[in-house]
Amino acid sequence: MLYVVTGPPGAGKSSWIRAHAKRRDVVIDLDLIAIALAGPGNDDRDYSETLLKVAHRARQAAIHEAERHLDQADVYLIHTMPQAKARAHYRRLGARIVVVDPGRRIVEQRVRDMRQPGMDAVVTRWYSQQARQRGAQTTAAQASRDW
Predict the structure, then answer these.
(1) Is the pLDDT of residue 115 over 90?
(2) C-beta of residue 15 within 8 angstroms of C-beta of residue 144
(3) Alpha carbons 8 and 120: distance in angstroms, whole number
(4) Which pLDDT does position 136 carry in this prediction?
(5) Less Cβ crowding at N or C end of the chain, within 10 Å?
């Protein structure tokens, strides 16, 4: 089964996956990929443009390969803002779309407290996209955890 986990920055997508994925499942998380590819000590999500380009390519390769093994393992994919083409592709694969959104106020506070400057713009884009897509069907929507 493919689980596509969406939500704004700081919503708890990675935490949701840690709570649900099993030991032998595949987890595709751009942050984890970037950290794995980064030089020593670069674990605070402050990635260079070059590192992000490499990490995105590695993520695409991982997604492509993981799609070939959906009958053998569950795959958890973080995709913050999938566009219509990606959502259609995931539907064709029979994916379960999970929206993690504890609410805009909580997300904005987490981004201020824990993320790099500029992520607030991504939060704004995510909520704007959700407003445009309201009525789009998702399998599950839930908060990440109680804080």
Answers:
(1) no
(2) yes
(3) 10
(4) 52
(5) C
Tell me, what's the pLDDT at 147? 40
Q: What is the CATH number of the domain that holds 34?
A: 3.40.50.300
Tally of structural domains, the chain: 1
Strand 96-100: give its sheet, edge to edge: 26-28, 75-78, 2-6, 96-100, 140-142
Whether 35 is in a domain gets the answer yes
Tokens representing 32 are: 């984890």
| pLDDT average, residue stretch 101-128 | 89
Q: Measured at the alpha carbon of residue 21, what is the angle toward residues 19 and 24, in degrees to the nearest 5?
A: 145
Tell me whether residue 104 is exposed, middle or buried, using C-beta atoms within 10 angstroms of its C-beta: 0 to 12, 13 to 18, 19 or more. middle
Judge whether 147 lies within some domain.
no
Q: Contact, 117 vs 46, CB < 8 A?
A: no
Sign of CA dihedral 37, 38, 44, 50: negative
Kindly tell me the burial class for residue 22, based on how many C-beta atoms sit within 10 Å of its own C-beta (0-12, 13-18, 19 or more). exposed
Q: What's the domain range around 126? A: 2-142
